[in-house]
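Researcher: Structure prediction, please.
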Amino acid sequence: MPIHLTNPERRRFLKIAGGAIGLSSSVSRAADNADADPSGEQKSKQINNDLVVVLNDTHIGERHPPDSAVPSNLRLIVEKLTQQTSKPACVLINGDLALKDGQPGDYEHFSRLAQPLRDAEIETHLTLGNHDNREMFYEVLKNQRTVNSPLKSLHVSVVKTRHANFFLLDSLKETMVTQGTVGSQQMNWLAKTLDEHAEKPAIIVAHHNPRLGGDPLHFPGGLIDSQKLWDVLTKRRHVKAYIHGHIHDRGFAKHRGIHIINTLATSYVADPNTSTTGWTSIRLDGTGAALTTHTTDEGHPWNGIEKRLHWSNT
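Model: Predicted structure follows.
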């Protein structure tokens, strides 16, 4: 079942969308209503319906000291997001939420760190990675579970925004197994749901990288059924991009007309000389998206760098 980190009063904005759980258009209406209060004064926290924020690889552990880098990075990012004068349409946290093998205390610690997002009424959606444990994840965050899941055994959902629909996949093959998979059941759901939501550009979000010629890293720990997935995606012209984490690095590629976006890890990197930690903001419009890299080290040369992606019509 999908889990969405929302306050109870905000959960009315979740509805069934073509058999999948997603944010309804009520979010846009809420943003319109937030522009001004009855006195005519501007409210401090408007929703920017064109902005989506992506985090991944938080790797929160139960026993991390409060001042160690991993929880501190997530705490810093959450603080920055909640202090902005406008809030994003949603935040996507794309897998490997837990440190190693998805212990209950990991998810409890993660939930505490993410609590300010709920307090600020910032819609937050989660996916799973190879360091997560699906059963423990559901057990600890059971109060955030939604009903009528499209796939009861997998964590999938559709998140609707003004300019694009985000399809959140569950690429967790098995806890502590580096490779990921989509699988035939999820592949069939994705094809059907993409066809039902062809009115806007589609962006696929999964923790694992595709193992394709268009990915310059071709990281072998990625999706074992990448080619089958790409066959499904490329048959549908409204699919424009695929967002992943897993590699703990940053990069942009393209394969068979679909952008591949490798987003920064929040927690740590293998080699700080070649990469860094941070998060990604995506500003959408009718023709594409502008992706901005934000680094936890504000002096890093990647901080504030923008990459513009244009949606192809073919």
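Model: The longest helix spans residues 104-119.
Researcher: Thanks, that helps.
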